[in-house]
Specification:
Blueprint (H helix, E strand, L loop, with lengths): L1 E8 L8 H8 L7 E2 L6 E4 L5 E10 L4 H5 L4 E6 L8
Antiparallel strand pairs: 1-4, 1-5, 2-4, 3-4
Length: 86
């Protein structure tokens, strides 16, 4: 499984129901699991309107393409560890 950040279109989801979001994303990538310990991160445009949001989850590497091709997904990004340099 690969840890990913997924940017989603806000008009496709009820942002308070993570289980429903997970189920909808599993239509394209059945292995996708949301990390429920990671808060949903709203993304706003210049008018301060909610346009997209980020969630963190895991997906089988073989299903990354399927997850990326969902019409509800704007982007899928590797969620690698963050550590100080040196």
């Amino acid at each position: 499984m690969q840890s990913v950040l997924v940017e989603l279109k806000s008009n496709h989801f009820n942002t308070t129901d993570l289980a429903l979001i997970e189920k909808q994303l599993q239509e394209n990538a059945s292995s996708f699991k949301i990390d429920i310990d990671y808060p949903l991160v709203p993304m706003h445009n210049d008018a301060n309107d909610l346009q997209t949001f980020l969630i963190r989850g895991e997906v089988n590497e073989t299903q990354l393409i399927q997850l990326k091709t969902s019409d509800k997904v704007l982007g899928v990004f590797n969620d690698g560890p963050i550590a100080p340099f040196g």
